[in-house]
């Protein structure tokens, strides 16, 4: 009996363990879970992983196969291990096209003396690395794994015509749109490791959103459907749209947003979600599907946030701008407690920014109207607003405006989860969750999954 081993080094996304278990069950394989959540230290957790791999090989009969999965791995093509591994005793693929470094997701090992011995030596080296013995201060899992198992290119088909384990997103490239054509056994989105100036670091600002998207696509494939994220995205762009939606236009607290047709694929998901949230709690909601005429020419998309707040402050006591890639997940939670005794509120960014302008709240007072006017003028004065990130984007202008008024402090800035939880931290318990910086049609896939979860609350 072959074995599927799931390494749990981080809490997996909902449904991932079921994906692993269902694949094992379908072929009559044993499914084992090695839980490393209780292990302290990044290096010790890596060492434990290969101890667990060796443990499974030691207990297996000769010749049996071991598929090693992790929180980044989704079983996609569902071929048998015998088919995928025919002619191979070990399959470890690289982490990006042309990369010399292996990916530790979706590895396959056959229980032979040679493989066990290579894993034993790898465990020994990782043990020295884990306790920082002389000569073992640097390196990472990928560098030690490469010394034991030279990686195969994930783009090349194996001798039986299959792909084993494919990384779906990397620097400057992606294959996530083509998984249904490539049909690898495993599709994964693991952080990629790189060495810069002698220091090994994983992908900065990693989160699990693409794993969620992969799991969604794999579930479609399992039931005989075909993932169609890009087609659905195009269809949303082409739908006829009214210029705006207004809900509870005189409510004391209101939210305002803008999403044009080019991002309707996720903007429409946001709109349905927020309309539901606002109707539940009696909040106002103003969703613009094209730039309204009261916004000055050239102040488009993200640059128009303060102008939209300014326009609607005359009708509400408190107005929030909210990006169109934010969802209300825990819909039972009201926003009222956040604004008690606050006239202005914005969250600190989860990276190196002092603030994140995805959500901004302003009370209708004379002082705050002056702040908004100043920020609007500052934004209009930016010469290049051709993209979201030009001149630091609207976020830079807002941060500078807060600094001008002496507001860049804890009176007005809250943490990165009180307003819209960053994707790095987000769970179903958070009131609002933000989904930025993602390939747009897969942003829609992930948002739709989370939107379904929001309906459970």
- Per CATH, the class of the largest domain reads Alpha Beta
Strand arrangement within the widest β-sheet reads 13-15-14-16-19-18-20
Query: Biggest β-sheet, characterized?
Result: 7 strands, mixed
The whole-number mean of residue pLDDT values reads 95
Reported by name, the CATH topology of the largest domain is Spore Coat Polysaccharide Biosynthesis Protein SpsA, Chain A
Task: Describe the 3D structure.
The model has no long low-confidence stretch (mean pLDDT 95). The protein has 14 helices and 22 strands. It has a 7-stranded mixed β-sheet with strand order 13-15-14-16-19-18-20, sandwiched between helices. Helix 10 packs antiparallel against helix 12. It is an alpha/beta fold and 457 residues long.
Layout of helices and strands:
Blueprint: E1 3-8, H1 16-27, E2 30-35, H2 42-59, E3 65-69, E4 73-75, H3 81-85, E5 90-91, E6 107-110, H4 113-130, H5 141-148, E7 165-167, E8 169-170, E9 173-174, H6 179-182, E10 186-188, E11 194-196, E12 199-201, H7 209-222, H8 229-238, E13 244-247, E14 253-258, H9 264-281, E15 284-288, H10 305-313, E16 318-322, E17 326-328, H11 336-339, E18 344-347, E19 356-363, H12 366-380, H13 393-404, E20 413-414, E21 420-421, E22 432-434, H14 440-454
Parallel strand pairs: 1-2, 1-3, 7-10, 14-15, 14-16, 18-20, 21-22
Antiparallel strand pairs: 3-6, 4-10, 5-6, 8-9, 11-12, 13-15, 16-19, 17-22, 18-19
């Amino acid at each position: 009996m072959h074995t599927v081993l799931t390494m749990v080094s981080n809490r997996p996304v909902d449904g991932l363990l079921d994906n692993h278990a269902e694949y094992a069950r379908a072929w009559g394989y044993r499914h084992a879970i090695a839980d490393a959540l209780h292990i302290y230290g990044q290096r010790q957790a890596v060492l434990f992983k290969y101890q667990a791999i060796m443990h499974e090989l030691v207990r297996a009969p000769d010749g049996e196969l071991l598929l090693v999965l992790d929180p980044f791995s989704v079983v996609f093509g569902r071929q048998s291990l015998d088919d995928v591994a025919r002619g191979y005793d070990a399959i470890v693929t690289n982490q990006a096209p042309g990369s010399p470094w292996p990916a530790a997701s979706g590895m396959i090992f056959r229980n032979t003396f040679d493989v066990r011995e290579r894993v034993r030596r790898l465990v020994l080296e990782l043990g020295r690395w884990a306790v920082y013995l002389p000569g073992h201060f640097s390196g990472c899992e990928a560098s030690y794994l490469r010394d034991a198992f030279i990686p195969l290119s994930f783009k090349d088909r194996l001798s039986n015509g299959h792909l084993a384990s494919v990384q779906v997103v990397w620097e400057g490239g992606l294959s996530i749109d083509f998984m249904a054509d490539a049909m690898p056994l495993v599709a994964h989105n693991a952080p990629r490791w790189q060495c810069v100036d002698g220091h090994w670091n994983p992908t900065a600002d990693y989160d699990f959103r693409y794993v969620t998207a992969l799991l969604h696509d794999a579930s479609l494939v399992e039931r005989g459907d075909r993932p169609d994220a890009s087609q659905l995205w195009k269809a949303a762009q082409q739908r006829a749209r009214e210029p705006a939606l207004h809900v509870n236009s005189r409510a004391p607290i209101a939210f305002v947003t803008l999403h044009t047709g080019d991002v309707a694929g996720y903007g429409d998901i946001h709109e349905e979600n927020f309309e539901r949230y606002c109707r539940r709690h009696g909040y106002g909601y103003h969703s613009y599907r094209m730039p309204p005429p009261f916004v000055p020419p050239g102040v488009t998309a993200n640059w128009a946030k303060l102008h939209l707040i300014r326009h609607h402050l005359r009708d509400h006591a408190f107005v929030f701008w909210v990006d169109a890639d934010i969802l209300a997940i825990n819909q039972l939670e009201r926003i009222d407690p956040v604004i008690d005794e606050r006239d202005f509120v914005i969250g600190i960014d989860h990276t190196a920014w002092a603030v994140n302008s995805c959500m901004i709240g302003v009370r209708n007072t004379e002082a705050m109207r002056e702040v908004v006017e100043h920020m609007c003028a500052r934004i209009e004065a930016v010469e290049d607003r051709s993209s979201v990130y030009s001149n630091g984007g609207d976020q830079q202008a807002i941060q500078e405006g807060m600094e001008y008024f002496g507001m860049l402090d804890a009176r007005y800035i809250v943490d990165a989860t009180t307003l819209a939880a960053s994707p790095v931290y987000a769970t179903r318990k958070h009131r609002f969750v933000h989904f930025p910086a993602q390939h747009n049609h897969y942003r829609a896939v992930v948002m739709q999954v989370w939107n379904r979860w929001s309906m459970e609350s």
